[in-house]
Specification:
The protein is an all-alpha fold. It folds into two domains: 19-78 and 156-169, Oxo-4-hydroxy-4-carboxy-5-ureidoimidazoline decarboxylase (UraD-like); 84-153, no CATH class. It has eight helices and no strands. It has helices spanning 19-25, 28-36, 42-50, 57-69, 73-82, 94-111, 127-138, 143-169. Helix 2 (28-36) crosses helix 3, helix 3 (42-50) runs antiparallel to helix 4 (57-69) and helix 6 (94-111) packs parallel to helix 7 (127-138). It is globular.
Length: 179
């Protein structure tokens, strides 16, 4: 689903101050690596990096959205191919693992890429149900319609990952950078 697991990210250097300012100051290659952990599109990462500095987190997220809307079909397909289907919590019942594996397999067979959905703001106890409902619902989409839905979910997922990484960078619980 692409949302329960987040790729490892390069750390923003441990410093006092605004995490957005530190993101803006990163060397371009480091910023691009960090952005690629949010959405695996080099074009997207390069574009977001090139427009730094961002005055606010909202401006950064708006630029990330805009760059996501401008992805070519090939760029979007590459980003979707880099996503992986998440598994339920290890403590979930075996039936949940089986149901999710079957749903992901059906989706991937029909559309050729992992199912992506942004679960930003969804309570952890409701995520499995949301994913299963989303897969079931979207399996009925025509391929062209699903490409549009998947692209929108990929943008939302990248936005949520980026916002989290920038916010976590300033958290006292994560003084060494983004995780």
């Amino acid at each position: 689903m692409g949302s329960a697991t987040t790729p490892a990210t390069p750390a923003i250097p441990a410093q006092q101050g605004d995490p957005l300012a530190r993101f803006n100051a990163l060397p371009a290659a480091v910023a691009q690596e960090l952005l690629l952990s949010c959405c695996h599109s080099h074009r997207w990462a390069e574009r977001v990096t090139a427009h730094r500095p961002y005055p606010t987190l909202d401006a950064l997220l708006a630029a990330a959205d805009e760059a996501g809307y401008d992805l070519s079909v090939a760029d979007r397909d590459k980003a979707l191919a880099a996503e992986s289907s998440a598994v339920p919590h290890p403590d979930a019942p075996p039936a949940a693992h089986t149901a999710l594996r079957a749903a992901h397999a059906a989706y991937e067979s029909r559309f050729g890429h992992a199912f992506v959905i942004s679960l930003d703001g969804v309570h952890p106890g409701e995520r499995l149900d949301q994913v299963l409902a989303g897969i079931r619902s979207r399996l009925g989409n025509e391929p062209d319609e699903e490409r549009v839905v998947a692209a929108d979910e990929l943008r939302r997922l990248a936005r949520a990952r980026l916002a989290h990484r920038v916010r976590v960078a300033g958290s006292p619980a994560h003084p060494s950078g983004m995780r």
